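> @MW can you paste both from yesterday?
MW: sure, first one:
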Amino acid sequence: MVASSGGVTALFSELHKYGLAGEYERALKTCNKIIQLIPDDAKALHCKVVCLIQLSSFKDALNLLNNSKYSSVTSVFHFEKAYVQYRLNFLKEALKTVDAAPELSPALKELRAQILYRLEQYQDCFKLYRDIVKNTNDEYEDERQTNMSAVNAYLTEKEMPGSQSWSKVTKYEIVYNAACREALQGRVPEAARLLQQAESAAEEYIKEDGGGDEELAEETAIIKVQRAYCLQMQGREKEASSLYQAVLKNKPSDQALVAIASNNLVVINKEANVFDSRKRMKAATQDGLEHKLTSRQRRSILYNQALLSVYSNQGELCRQLCTKLNKEFGLEKEAVLIESSCLARDGKLQQAVNLIMKRPELKLAAVHLLLSQGDRKGAIKMLESPELKFKPGIIGTLVTLYLADNNREAVTKLFEEAMGHFKGNKEGGSVEEAWRARHGGPGGPAGIRALARLVVANAGTDPSKALELAADLPPMKQSEGVVDVDTLETSNWMMGAKVVKKSTRQEQSPGTPRVEKKKKSSRKRKTKLPANVDLAVAPDPERWLPRYERTAFRKRRQRGPREVIKGSQGMTTSATDQYDMTKQQGNPTKSPRVVEKLPPQSEPGWQKNKQQKKKRKGGKW
């Protein structure tokens, strides 16, 4: 089919118009019409690829570029093909496409730097960015500086000038990247200070640009999450948790940011609040996040997910995650420890121990697992292996375990074997040489102190060895005038400091007058008397008795006619007369008790005054 030149020209004019207006769907239809008329037209195929990229149809664009029907034309579209592969996360293929280009254009250099960053080849990426910044001068210079600072954050050695004053930098992205670098290097307080500065600069920039609260929250979310991480690393977990939750409450659009904040909240929860942790971990492991997170971040999330499966008793999931942890990141030891912990929680102790014993360097972890499950005998048997038995820390642990079983014979035997082992062990020099090397050599003060301790240690068991070692000690003449021998002999140096302080007394030299210390006289306090006391009147002899035992109190209570008991409850009037002793005429000896009146005593003045104070105004009591 032969196309007329006028019709093709009109279609290209239409395509140009749609491209300027940004109507890529219409432009794509026009490209298809041109390709139907002229299948090998390079401009039409190039425009179609660009339209598909603008419409985010990256798979269709890659299929078109890989179509053998158009290979003679599309083989020169290196940038477009590499960009499509980069957007589809085919990073290694994209790097090969860029390197296959005959010449690296500025656009290909920028794309190659982005690919290297995603591949975490930070050293090569930084060198390429430095070359681009040096040889390029356009309106995107600030973006390149920001990307360069982001790459620098992951480098082990600081490539950017160390004398740069971050307080004078107004671009908050660069300050944020500098804070990330400080955090990765362990300088958390400095990172927190820079993050505060970056957040203030971001707020100022967005307000000047006319942005609202939503834009401000979206832009500063990543800074707040990083600041929460710094708080968490400083042990301020409550503040960090509040900051994480505040960011997640605003529902940021960045899925990677949500994943990191959710994972860090799971770490704060630990084994508590497992339900909330499972919900957070689900947000941190969504599909598609593997291309938005670094390998370090993905490894941490997978590790925490495996630990969470142990706490939530998901044995099968834990086994799968441990296999993935070993396969993708090579963390075999960590995977073995997590899986063995899960088996132990499920009651499969022997399987857990067998799994750990596949790695001999993890034998102490197996011992810890046995002790945590109460299997003391199994732990002792494992610690008694020749490669562990005579290590100082293991000896102490075995002694504790033997004593817990009240097996003192085993303790004695262990000490004898240890002494024989260390006495015949000549590897690495003698014990004396080890002590001297540890304490600064034989000539220094520390070496002399160590040698003196060795002499004391050998004096009880091997006197000849002690004398041999003592020959290397400095002569006593060097210590004359420095050490007071008499004081050392008379002082109770084997006793504690408090006992010595109580038992020893300072003896005065002859001829010195003795000063007798005056005894402190006990201070007599003045007797406090009541106010308005009359000292002329003798005090009440019953003043120390309780009030109800005083004569005056009984006299007031018995004032008036005495009541007579006339029977128990429920009796009638006729029955009470029968039992009323006052009405009995035939028994005059049993008369009612008569209360004798005592002569009135004059009350003290302070007691009268006290009774008068009880009266209130108006004559009421």
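MW: second:
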Amino acid sequence: MEISCDEKCKDDDLLKLKKTRNKYPVSVVIMLILKWIEGVSFSGIHGFLIFYFISSFSLFNHESVGYQIFKTFTIILAFISATITDSWLGKFNTFIGSTVLLLVGHIIVIIKETITEDLILSRFLVILGIVVVTVASSIDIPCMLCLVADQFPEHQVKERRKIFSFLYLSISFGIFFTNISIPSILDKKCSYRDCYMMYFGIPAGIVTFNLVTLIFSKKFFFIETPEGSSLLKILKCIQFAIKNHLRYCSWKIPRRDHWLDWASEKFSKSHIHEVKLFFRMLIFISPFPIFWALVEKQEMFWNLQAKKMNLTVAGKSWEIRDLQIIFSAVLIIIFILMELFFIPFLQRPGLNFSLIKKILLGMVLIYLSSLISFFLELQIENAPNFRAGSKESLLRIINVADSSFNVTFYQNKSHNAYSTMASSFEITDYMKISLDSDHQYFQIILFSPKMVKEETILLEQEKTYAMILTGTTKFYSVLLFQDRTDKSRNAYAFVRIINTLKRDVFIILSLKALDLEKFNGTSPELRVKIKKNINLLCKVENKNHLINLGPLSVGASYLIFIIQDIPELEIWKIQLLEMKNISIGWQFVQFFIMGLGKYLLIVSCSEYFYYKAPRGMKVTMQALWLSTLFSSSLILSFVTYISLLPEWTEYFLLSNLLLLVIICFLIISYYYQETL
């Protein structure tokens, strides 16, 4: 059914499509189901590849310039692909192509897992895999949104709006399902190759099923034939308008209402109107990159805030990961109830919001969430510290080893007391461990796909511990020390340096030198005065290095791990956050309001950019809008550190910046509506 005709002809063809309940085309139902299945597959492989990508390249962490350059490259490539889709390939063909790319990404990962011995080839496949999968997803989402919306005639506005909402829910549910499945696979005690091959092999089969289903269901889709590059026509119109304006730039020649009207000698009024609309949409979209950067910053604050809170909810101790999954499940249920009952109930008496009002409402809800976060942080600052009680200890695991471990604690050599997953270069939540007396020995078994190791530790009541896992495949070790639980109120930070290298390290201070022995040599706690740039001089086998401590918070405690010295010295810095006696359940309010705001904002913007985009640029404008979601971390890279300020001040500044961006958007949307 590949056609190119006017709107009336298009509506006639759309009415012929096979529908369910005489409302929703079968093609849309197929897309919804496949998108949920694909979301399950994509979220997992993308997460694993990002993990491999960052762990394989020390220069490519979330904050590094290299990682930001990579993200910029994928955004630009996605925009170019969207332009090609609108101009020549068409939405359905591009959607098929993105599914093929996703399948190729799975195959690359499977190949990588079979040749893990070759380090250079393995790293190359990691880079290739993450590029292929990321580009596939960045092409897939804008193309899919436009393809689904194309299946509805103009009069089916309500049905189209519901489909935009359910597509968002379908993607969210896929991510939610992945967040449940990945930990269960990581916790599974099977061989390294079997576990990961099973995880990557099953999604590869899912993507293959989706691809075959799409190809055989093509007859159910309305496929509009592209009519050439609209972006190129817009650029030619702009070029001619500028040249024509400069050619007749004289006071004797009457002025025109808009500078683009100088192109009227060559281009039609409708085309010039589309060019004007394109520029208005660029102005309309301009606040969003900064807005999403602030939202991402707030979500980073939430993670830090959660680590300082008591993980007991309803009398039961939880992990942050489990609570976030529960919060996400509640949000998805609430969104479904809203779409099925609450919104139809409001529309019965004629109460309805325009898309711009929904966008503004979503932004305001996100701002309200940041305010709640700010007030909660004030409560946390004033709350007493959470401490272990009688016959109790608190313990968290810091994994600096090159492998993830399943850590199991045994009491009396037989009773399985506690078990948790400690991922490489991550810190677990505090575990409350019950003791039979005022002190007790525990047997620990560290299980990874590469080895099994046993250790014994001694825990005492009413004390807080940090257990550090270090080493490589040939040599793993466990280091236990008592954790600092109180935050000092003076102008100093506290730093402890740990040497995980195979060589001794000498730290040279102003008054003395510290000798850190190889394999977990630990310095005493150093009191460091806060200033803008803090460097420590160290020596490894007659080679001098500088340890850049970066920004430090007043009164905070840090662990500095020396993890590499060839070719350059590298460290991993973590902040030991104090744990307050205030329940993490209070975070649900801001989590819920933020989720509701993002839901309204993303769904409304996706719908808005489909309706208002110039003809022949639907996918391009969707890609441009979605790029603002993923470009936020690029802006965060250039934000000046404000860590010298108290944490509640950072929350306060964030809330005010969000309000400022909302006011700017309000002004832009007002004038944008006036000029339509």
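> thanks! Residues 230-267 form one domain.
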